[in-house]
Backbone:
């Protein structure tokens, strides 16, 4: 954990909850690799962020054969924040973030990422948009016919074309160190534990310096200690890579550790939106069932 | 419910009327069910052709995943070589041993090498190898892609700027199309070796003599159609295996289903293609 903030050369706001979005950074900071971050905006390379909110979803509707999963769902993700989307299993949380990255096509409504309507993107535009978004799959989705190293190199070679062998090796070592798994480089995914897989998967996602992170139930199925580790990794990614994130979960410890803002989804709609304090002090029965 | 039934039986005791209404309802229910099955069937066929079309389209796109293609060629060879070696040898051996007494009755033992060679090259080699590959490669692809689909690996590929059709499907289909003809030729060669071994059980046939007799019986018209159809076997096995895996449902049990249905369908296709090939060969030669 420590080496993260040191590599980035940033002052973390504290071990628990770094303040999102507005960490003042003195001068230029060179994040390992060749991406230069200037000032306090999450700028990867020379792409600039113009909008205040990076993702804007309006009246999203999505169903599967007569089963309406999302109806009239609207939300915004602000620059630099960790937004937690809370909801019980089967409430369509995964469907929601899959629509954002257009793995699924919505039936109705618009989704804007950096101001661009996702459903109107060309193939090239879609590829460019996806390069800016990191997606941590619920199951980890590590390629099980490849070693950890090959898994990490796969997106790197395909998204950041033209890197030298040395640069690739350095980048792989860096992200793997960041998730604390430097020694697993040549292992197969089947040799790793569930928590290690999640972490390798996280490393594979951050290796291409995404500006937005979408986490699909990052702590589900892990023991409390490993869950805490993943939660603090999520915070580390936020501070180090200056990402804006949507974290989907029903694990309340993960919510407490990572959330800047919470949106609760119920029956395909936004049920309540607010800060962690508001949710903590709420007397609503459904919210209480999560915040015991 | 019960009451209605009772009334009906009581009523039936007196007048035997055809239960038209009931029949009509049943008929329409059946029709609806059948229509649904038919719709499902046709939409599956439609989906399959769409899949083939996409595979074809992606095959001729600019970027080709050469490394993955070579890897798949290696995998196919690696998975099937032992099985095909044994089967090839045994087929040649058995064919020889079985047909020898019959030929001996007619005093035509000298025709044995040619007869076995023709039947292996024209039919036994391609079809048996095709079926083995349908089982081994079809199920392998179905299960592999199916589990990649279920565990979101295909989605992960898609979001890291890789076209999964190009990376996974095109490479596999092309590898199967190229490798299965090679495997068939290999099986043919082993079959003829096995046949020579079989001929040597009774009597002493020199290797060179056996082979020159065998190949003098085989004409180009035997050889060419047999090789051409194996390319189609390969393509069919590849496309079906990938299609079944790629369109696997959600949940782990669909991986098994994808694998089994890939084997069944691929074997069926091998047989059907063989049938069509025979017809065409008959017309042409
Ligand atoms: N590709 C799909 N095809 C059909 N139904 C789906 C698909 N994806 C999700 N669903 C359905 O949508 C609902 C919500 O699923 P999901 O978003 O995975 O829930 P969760 O909130 O637990 O992530 C479920 O009822 C699921 O069966
Ligand atoms: Mg989910």
Residues:
């Amino acid at each position: 954990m420590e080496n993260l903030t040191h590599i980035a050369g940033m002052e973390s706001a504290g071990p628990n909850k770094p303040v999102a979005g507005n960490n003042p950074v003195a001068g230029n900071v060179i994040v390992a690799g060749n991406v230069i971050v200037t000032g306090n905006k999450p700028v990867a390379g020379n792409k600039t962020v113009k909008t205040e909110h990076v993702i804007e979803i309006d009246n999203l509707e999505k169903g599967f054969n007569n089963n309406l999963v999302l109806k009239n769902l609207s939300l915004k993700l602000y620059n630099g924040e960790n937004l937690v989307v809370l909801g019980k299993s089967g409430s369509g949380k995964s469907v929601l973030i899959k629509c954002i990255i257009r793995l699924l096509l919505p039936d109705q409504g618009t989704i804007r990422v950096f101001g661009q309507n996702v459903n109107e993107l060309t193939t090239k535009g879609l590829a460019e948009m996806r390069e800016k978004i990191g997606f941590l799959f619920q199951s980890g989705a590590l390629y099980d016919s490849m070693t950890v190293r090959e898994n990490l190199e796969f997106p790197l070679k395909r998204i950041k074309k033209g890197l030298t062998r040395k640069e690739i090796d350095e980048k792989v070592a860096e992200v793997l160190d960041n998730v604390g798994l430097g020694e697993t480089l040549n292992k197969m995914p089947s040799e790793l534990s569930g928590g290690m897989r999640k972490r390798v998967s996280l490393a594979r996602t951050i290796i291409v310096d995404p500006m937005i992170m979408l986490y699909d139930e990052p702590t589900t199925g892990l023991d409390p200690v490993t869950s805490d580790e993943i939660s603090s990794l999520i915070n580390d990614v936020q501070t180090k890579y200056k990402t804006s994130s949507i974290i989907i979960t029903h694990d309340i410890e993960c919510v407490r550790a990572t959330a800047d803002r919470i949106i609760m989804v119920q029956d395909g709609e936004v049920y309540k939106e607010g800060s962690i304090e508001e949710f903590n002090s709420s007397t609503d029965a459904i919210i209480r069932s999560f915040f015991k | 419910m019960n009451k209605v039934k009772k009334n009906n039986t009581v009523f039936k005791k007196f007048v035997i009327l055809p239960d038209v209404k009931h029949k009509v309802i049943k008929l329409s229910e059946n029709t609806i069910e059948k229509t649904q099955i038919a719709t499902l069937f046709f939409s599956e066929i439609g989906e399959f052709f769409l899949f083939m079309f996409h595979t074809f389209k992606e095959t001729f796109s600019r970027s080709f995943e050469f490394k993955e293609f070579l890897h798949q060629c290696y995998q196919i060879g690696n998975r099937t070589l032992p099985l095909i070696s044994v089967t090839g040898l045994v087929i040649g051996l058995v064919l020889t041993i079985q047909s020898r007494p019959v030929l001996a009755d007619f005093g035509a033992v000298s025709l044995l090498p040619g007869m076995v060679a023709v039947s292996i090259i024209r039919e036994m080699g391609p079809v048996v190898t095709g079926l083995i590959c349908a089982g081994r490669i079809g199920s392998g692809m179905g299960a592999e892609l199916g589990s990649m689909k279920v565990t979101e690996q295909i989605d992960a590929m898609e979001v890291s700027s890789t076209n999964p059709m190009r990376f996974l499907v095109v490479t596999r289909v092309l590898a199967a199309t190229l490798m299965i003809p090679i495997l068939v030729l290999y099986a043919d060669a082993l079959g003829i070796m096995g046949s020579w071994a079989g001929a040597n059980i009774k009597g002493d046939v020199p290797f060179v003599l056996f082979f020159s007799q065998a190949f003098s019986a085989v004409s180009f018209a035997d050889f060419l159609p047999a090789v051409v159809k194996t390319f189609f076997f390969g393509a069919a096995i590849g496309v079906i295996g990938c299609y079944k895996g790629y369109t696997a449902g959600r949940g782990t049990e669909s991986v098994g289903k994808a694998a089994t249905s890939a084997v069944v369908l691929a074997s069926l296709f091998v047989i059907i293609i063989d049938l069509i090939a025979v017809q065409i060969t008959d017309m042409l030669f």
Summary: The interface with chain B takes residues 98, 101, 103, 127, 130-131, 133, 135, 137-145, 154-155, 158-159, 208 of chain A (CB under 8 Å). The radius of gyration of chain A is 18 Å.
